[in-house]
Amino acid sequence: MSNSPTSHDLAWLYRGVSEIFPDQPESQNPNENLAKRLEKTDRPLRIKLGIDPTAPDIHLGHSIPVRKLRAFQDAGHTAVLIIGDFTAQIGDPTGKSEVRTQLTAAQVKHNAETYLEQVRPILDFQTPGRLEIRYNSEWHKELDLSKMIPLFATMTVGQMLAKEGFALRYQQENPIYLHEFLYPLLQGYDSVAVNADVELGGTDQKFNLAVGRDLQRHFGQATQFGLLLPLLLGTDGVQKMSKSLGNYVGLKEDALSMYSKLEKTADNLLEQYYELL
Known about the structure:
- This protein is an alpha/beta fold.
- Helix content is about 40%, strand content about 10%.
- The chain is built from 12 helices and 6 strands.
- Strand 2 (about 45-50), helix 3 and strand 3 (about 80-85) form a beta-alpha-beta unit.
């Protein structure tokens, strides 16, 4: 796609981005330099974003990677939106001090339906070839034990304990359950299943995105780039936006409710909000 706008102007790519990995900006190798990959590719890149429907509502913080996904769509690439209906039944242990409550398949299905409606105003659902919506139960349900054992063998317990949340829980002697170790492997395998070129995620997701690269390499695929985006601070200006902390603005809220929350936002947050939203 050397004749695409991405060859001339990559401001949209770097806007609001915390980190791209690997990142060798002086390299001409498209496997080390995402700008070169975008410039030299002869096809739309496959841009992966996984969303686990663990709750029915999405807030502004969740919308940040979705907006970046739209930017890739506008640049001519294919957004691969993965609804983690299988992985949501485990729950991402990232940043959690204790095991998540496991959801039923029915709860996950209900939440997934509301997620699609909430991201519809952001993503391009109309242009052919711009969006794939996939459910990771498509491939995970096909992974029997004979296929899972080689997948487990790609990582060690030591590598898992290097993940920040696991390391802290281990030090504090808080239980870590075996099914939680599955999560990074299954999320990483999603990248293999959809043959992702780029994966988007928050800065707290670097470990999971790196696992995706490792598994692609293991299965003989070209490895994806990881593109990390900041975690949006909540309206309190202290902690990341979270429904449980009450510092969030939901995408389903009416305009007046959104306005009444945002008008109280601290001045020091306005620059970040403007750049990311």
